[in-house]
Fold this protein.
Amino acid sequence: MSNVIKVPKPARTAFNPHRPLTKNTLIAAQVQHFKEVESQLPEHLRTGIDVAGIKTEGEASHYIRKVTRAIHHAGATPPKKVETAR
Amino acid sequence: MTAGLQNLKHIVVLMMENRSFDHMLGSLHAEDPRIQGLAGNESNLDTTNEPARVQPLAEFQSQLDPDPNHHFPAVHQQIFDGGPLNKPTMSGFVKSYYAERKDVNHSRKIMYYFPKEKLPVLTGLARSFAVFNGWFSSIPGPTLCNRAFAHYGTSFGQVSMDVFYYHKQPLSVYERLINAGHSAKLYYFDEASSTMEVVNLLQNQPKLFGTYDQFLEDCKSGKLPQYSFVEPNYTDHEDAGGEQIACDQHPDHDVQQGEVFVASVYNAIRQNPDLWKSTALLIVYDEHGGIFDHVPPPSCTKDGFTAPPDQTGVPGLTFEFDRLGVRVPAILVSPWIPKATVVPGPGEANGRVFEHASIPRTITQFFVGDYPNSTPREQKAATFLDLLSDNLRPDADCPVFRT
């Protein structure tokens, strides 16, 4: 018999897509990086979303989803510009 | 070569977010003194010069708010507390956290750790497989430069979140494998969480990526690549499947959801008998997230870059990438690892030091062989597959998680 370990689930209150982005600098940085990548995508694949208006985790993930999809749509198309270390 | 190595076909790395070794696993010292956790009397002075002692009072959520600062200047204070640079004292954590909210009582919470009962997955794996006493983040700094070491064996001189390095040498570990005819993939949780490799690998090589659902399917169908890197869900968001709670354990995300996720990755491998016998799973955290750990980071081989004061953010300090960051939890899982293995760390007999450059070093060496373009730092990094033995543990000896 295997050693079975029960894993508790988090409280219902754990989910908070309205958490301000200011509380997580990692996601804030990720949004800025997606903005940089989006600016190099073909015009028709860009979201038109102004990232300055993204204030919550839920809004950030909505934007990240759209740009991630656009990057995959762009596929093997080489980016217009390749950033170097800065 | 051991039987464990002869049978090894897949390596999976799961990198979580922003928790220190002592915070997550420090309580295990009480039941197993070989584990270099907490004795219970470790402390830092707060801003009123009163000692703030470690306490088993860590909570799953809403305790480390605001997010503890873990950028280079803050970590510099946490490690040295204004003292000489050749003497890391680990005494500046409380003062560093005080700067976030100017609340003395709140600043003391940076010393809190989890009692082992609250983290049954992480402590269960640490007890059953191999726990590293000396795995350190690669840089005393934030997420992205540390994650870069896991992908490239270097951060290309960066100590911050602005890491742009695609098309530079050395190549990522994924490209090294694929160029040599092997298989490798990064699995992000879903499109709404995506990857932290945005401006580098995702932008330029989107075909390297898959989703976590695909990881689960690949485990089930036996189609897992030789090397897989798994990223947790970084955001609370909704999708067609309903609420997706962030599982990266980055403060202030729920630590328990991270436990569920770690168990899910483990179970996906464990439930395919062929995969289980031929896979090594490394669970590791990118950096400590500003949270207390008592083991001073050791010096290390320079990686050939320097970060001047305008990049480190510390007046007069040029960082030569010659010291590691704060210690993080790291556990290697495989049925070929003897039960309750503890890998000694610095200061112990036969002590070994690991860091994130150990990941590309180990993966490249095992699947490809020598990679001369790697940095001096990666070339000197310790590898970890020697922990796989000749003996396959019985199935009943290895834990199963029920979620």
